[in-house]
Amino acid sequence: MSKLQYFIKGNNKIAYRYYKRSKKNLIFIHGLMSDMNGQKSVFFNNHCRKENISFLCFDFSGHGKSNGDFINFGIKDWYKNLKDLINYLNLKNITLIGSSMGGWVAMLYALNFSKNIDKLIGIAAAPDFTKDLLWKELSDHNKAKIRANKIIKKKVSDDFTYQYSPKLFKNSKDHFIKDTNKKFLKETILFHGGKDLTVPRSYNDKFFTNSNFSKLINITIKNADHSMSDEISLNTISKFI
C-alpha cells in the first residue's frame, strides 16, 4: 500500500495516497461523510494496479484523516482540495470518478479544467444537491435551524447519521452546475442505482437537455443502491475506465 501522505496548505492538511504507475491517472473522489478507504476506492485502486494506471485517493477537509471539523466546510472547500492536490502532484491525463457529492466536485473540475481530464465518471452523482435535493426535503423547522446557524442531523441507519451545517449550504451556493455555461466536451458516464433512495435515477437527466456535457451517457444498474458498492456495479463501472 502507498504510504499515507499529507498535503499542507495554510491551515488545511489533506490526507492522500498516490500510487504512481504510469502517465495515465485515475482519481477517486469520495462522497459526503465518507473517506478514501471505502470499498469503491479499494476496488478502483486494485483495478488500476492491474491496468497499470496511476491512482489517487484522498480525504476531503473534515473527513477521514484530513484535519478540520466537517461542519465547517462545503463544496467550495472540497473543490479547492481537489484543485490543490492535482496542482501539487502536477497530474494530467486524468479520469475522474466521483461518488455522490464527489460527483459534484468532479463535474466542477472537469468543466473548469477540461484540458487535464480525459474522462468523467459519476457514481450516483449529486450535483447541486444542497439546493435541488436536500433543501427541498428539509422541514420548515429544520430550515429555520439552518438559518439560525444551527446543525441538523438526519439518521439514515442505526450506525450512520448525516450532519448538515449552515456552512454546507453557504459554501456551496456559488458552485451550482446549473449556473455555469462551461462545457466538458469529452466522454461523461453517469451511473445510477435503480434502488437508490438518496439520489433519484432521473436526477441527472437534465444534462441531456443542456450543453454542459456533450458526450453524456446515463447508465442505470437495476438492483444497485446509492453506494453502488456491489460487485455487479463495480465490475460494470470498471469496464468504462
Number of strands: 10
Q: What is the structural class?
A: alpha/beta
CATH homologous superfamily placement: Alpha/Beta hydrolase fold, catalytic domain
Tally the helices: what do you get?
7
Shape summary = globular
Strand order of the largest sheet: 1-2-4-3-5-6-9-10
Description:
This protein is α/β, with parallel strands linked by helices and 241 residues long. It has a single domain (5-238), classed as 3-Layer(aba) Sandwich (Rossmann fold). The protein is built from 7 helices and 10 strands. It has helices at 39-51, 75-89, 101-112, 129-137, 140-147, 166-170, 231-238; strands at residues 5-9, 12-19, 25-29, 54-58, 94-99, 117-123, 152-157, 160-164, 184-193, 213-221. The strands form 2 sheets. Strands 1-2-4-3-5-6-9-10 form an 8-stranded mixed beta sheet, with helices on both faces. Strands 7-8 form a two-stranded antiparallel sheet. The longest helix has 15 residues, at 75-89. It is globular and about 50 Å long. It starts with a strand and ends with a helix.
Topology overview:
Layout: E1 5-9, E2 12-19, E3 25-29, H1 39-51, E4 54-58, H2 75-89, E5 94-99, H3 101-112, E6 117-123, H4 129-137, H5 140-147, E7 152-157, E8 160-164, H6 166-170, E9 184-193, E10 213-221, H7 231-238
